[in-house]
Design brief:
heterodimer, A: 111 residues, mainly beta, B: 118 residues, 7-stranded mixed β-sheet
């Protein structure tokens, strides 16, 4: 029973364009959401987070949007750069408990 | 500042052998975690610890054991290796979750241990 789902295993975008990575969750008790980025042979690194009391959080080129009614989370990267090519994991938690991760989306930014 | 260090990076085990995956962090984080990542799957929580002397099971604890005698170290033990334990193992640490939103967000992960059981 996957509580956090990333239905697109891969995504390719042109350099300079927008990348949109999507994440759906089933547990309405989740109250905190995060995105992690992972390069090959490295551990995931924290990218951006959002609390369930907000619907948007920005950090430079990265923006996370939360639609609680749809139980949907998205990460926008604008403009996309070749160095953004990595696997992106969505994660969620409830009541300060451990993170539940999605299966990841491989983003490839083409020069 | 080394962050989270995992050793070894790679290991091949025979069925039935045992081994310990080492994890140490130098950030004085109370919370530590062990995850495994299988191909095409997300990270699954094996065990976690909220402080020295305190450990608890995660989603997939069978076949593993942990201990937490110090704040810095959180080793993961495989007693009787099975092919189903072939995976990439990640250790992570964090501040207590209540620190979220105060500039102390997220987990810090190690670079992983790739384990193959044959």
């Amino acid at each position: 029973d996957q509580q956090v789902k990333q239905n697109s295993p891969s995504l390719s975008v042109q350099e300079g364009r927008i990348s949109i990575l999507n994440c759906d969750y089933t547990n309405s008790m989740f109250d905190y959401f995060l995105w992690y980025k992972k390069y090959p042979a490295e551990g995931p690194t924290f990218l951006i987070s959002i609390s369930s009391i907000k619907d948007k959080n920005e950090d430079g080129r990265f923006t996370v949007f939360l639609n609680k009614s749809a139980k949907h989370l998205s990460l926008h990267i604008v403009p996309s750069q070749p160095g953004d090519s990595a696997v992106y994991f969505c994660a969620a938690s409830k009541e300060f408990k451990q993170l539940t991760f999605g299966s990841g989306t491989q983003l490839t930014v083409l020069p | 500042n080394a962050g989270v260090t995992q050793t070894p990076k790679f290991r091949i085990l025979k069925i039935g052998q045992s081994m310990t995956l080492q994890c140490t962090q130098d950030m004085n984080h109370n919370y530590m975690y062990w995850y495994r990542q299988d191909p095409g799957m997300g990270l699954k929580l094996i065990y976690y610890s909220v402080g020295a002397g305190i450990t608890d099971k995660g989603e997939v604890p069978n076949g593993y054991n942990v201990s937490r005698s110090t704040t810095e170290d959180f080793p993961l033990r495989l007693e009787l290796a099975a092919p189903s334990q072939t995976s990439v193992y990640f250790c992570a640490s964090s501040y207590p979750p209540v620190a979220r939103g105060r500039g102390q967000d997220g987990y810090t992960f190690g670079s992983g241990t790739r384990l193959t059981v044959v």
